[in-house]
Amino acid sequence: MKTLHPSKVYQMLEPGPVALLATAQDGKANVMTMSWHMMVEFEPPRIACIVSGADHSFTALRETGECVIAVPPATMAERVVEIGNCSGREVDKFARFHLDSHPAKLVAAPLIAGCLANIECRVIDDSLVDRFNLFVLEAVHSWFDPALTGVSTLHHRGWGEFALDGEIIRLKSRMR
User: Fold this and answer.
1) pTM for this model (two decimals)
2) Spatial CB neighbours of 43, under 8 Å, sequence gap ≥ 6
3) Which of 4, 51, 82, 146 has the greatest number of C-beta atoms within 10 Å?
4) Ranges for the Flavin reductase like domain (predicted)?
5) Domains of the chain, each with CATH number or no CATH
6) Burial of 167 (0-12, 13-18, 19+ CB in 10 A)
7) How many angstroms separate the CA atoms of 161 and 152, rounded?
8) CA distance to 31, 55, 70, 77, 107, per residue, from 95 (Å)
């Protein structure tokens, strides 16, 4: 065993696929790339996510209390990274990156076409936002694109490095 520098821990604990977080505030939609998220409950589905206070999306999420988490396929990797490398303060990201949006059922933030899943969420706990920028969301409605079943997702490994999910194996489980 060798010592691992603390800055590399994220690369070992990557939480899941890179996602897009869409918000809408005052009629204006925005989208950001998000890697720091995790499930915290299955039913109802609850998701914890970190949105930096420096991000344009932070204010919209905090003020509206709702968003859409979209899971893009790996084929969108370059667009996803570019979305994360600019700010919605200066750019209409939906226009710049040719993202097709559709109205959500229960929240004002838009669904993003071409993604494997779109999860409409409401903030249910913001008690850790001031300290850690951590929002706890509850999924209130979700969508999936059956045409994209089985496609790879993108996983952030830190500092511009990504992995694609791979072979799926099934093992006996007592959990349902």
Assistant:
1) 0.92
2) none
3) 51
4) 12-161
5) 17-164 (2.30.110.10)
6) exposed
7) 16
8) 11, 19, 17, 17, 21
